[in-house]
Amino acid sequence: MVKAAHSRDTTPGTTTGTIPGTPSSTRILVAGGGYVGMYTAIRLQQQLRRELERGEVEIVVVSPAPYMTYQPFLPEAAAGSISPRHVVVPLRRVLYRCKIVVGEVRSVDHARRTAAFTTLASEGEGAGATPIGYDELVLAPGSVSRTLPVPGLADYAIGFKTVEEAIGLRNHVIEQMDIASSTREPALRDAALTFVVVGGGYAGVEALAELEDMARYATRYYHNIKPADLKWILVEASDRILPEVGEAMGTYAIRELRARNIDVRLGTRLDSCENRVAALSDGSRMPTRTVVWTAGVKPAPVLAATDLPLNEHGRLKCTAELTVEGVGHAWSAGDAAAVPDVTAGEPGTVCAPNAQHAVRQTKVLAENIVASLRGQPLKTYAHKYAGSVASLGLHKGVAHVYGRKLKGYPAWLMHRAYHLSRMPTFNRKARILAEWTLSGLFKREIVSLGSLEHPRAEFELAAGAVPSRPLARRHEDPPMSARERRRRQAPPPRPGPAAASAAATGGDPPGEPPGGAPGEDRRRGDQSGTGTGTGDGWPGTGDG
Question: Where is this region: Disordered (predicted)?
Answer without folding.
Answer: 1-24, 468-544
